Q: What sequence folds into this?
């Protein structure tokens, strides 16, 4: 199933690319299936042992990557693309390789060329927060945004063509994202 990706202008897809976090072509990457819409973003995964730091515990840099990615996709869901200028992460519990986790991100504040985002990594069943983060993104200039959209093969699709509504898991997609992320302290409570 393709991840649901929408911004304020509608559904979109990218061509396969080499991003370590979400790229399909990076053989060493995480291959995250990040879903996004104007309310926020999310992904679910189980980290493989190759991403360990201490024995059986996911490396902190990988957890930072997950948080950076969902916060960045939350900004993309608002129609802005940016680069991470600052990020702070709090590790609350060890995240073990082989354990199912969910990472969620949402925009806290937008203004000018900057956006502040927040996110967390949670247990998808209990919703216990395992790590959390905050970040500041600086928007790329409009001419650079168009170049990047071309570079990554961004194109608009009809909602049915993007895999929307085809997820039958309890994870939630589409309009359920706002409620799911909101339940964890995301956009529903922070706007």
A:
């Amino acid at each position: 199933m393709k991840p649901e990706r929408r911004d304020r202008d509608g559904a979109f897809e990218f061509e396969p690319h080499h991003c370590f976090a979400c790229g399909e072509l990076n053989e060493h990457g995480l291959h995250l299936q990040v879903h996004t819409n104007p309310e926020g973003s999310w992904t679910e995964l189980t980290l493989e042992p190759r991403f360990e730091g201490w024995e059986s515990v996911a490396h902190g840099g990988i957890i930072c990557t997950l948080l950076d990615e969902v916060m960045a996709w939350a900004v993309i869901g608002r129609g802005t693309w940016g680069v991470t200028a600052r990020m702070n992460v709090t590790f609350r519990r060890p995240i073990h390789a082989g354990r199912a986790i969910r990472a969620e991100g949402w925009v806290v504040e937008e203004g000018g060329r900057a956006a502040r985002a927040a996110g967390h990594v949670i247990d998808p069943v209990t919703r216990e927060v395992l790590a959390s983060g905050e970040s500041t993104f600086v928007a790329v200039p409009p001419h650079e945004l168009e170049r990047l959209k071309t570079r990554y093969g961004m194109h608009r699709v009809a909602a049915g063509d993007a895999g929307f509504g085809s997820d039958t898991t309890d994870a939630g997609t589409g309009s359920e994202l706002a409620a799911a992320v909101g339940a964890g302290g995301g956009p529903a409570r922070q706007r």
User: Anything to note?
Assistant: Strands lie at 6-7, 10-13, 35-37, 40-46, 82-91, 100-111, 114-122, 129-139, 155-156. The CA atoms of residues 33 and 84 lie 20 Å apart.
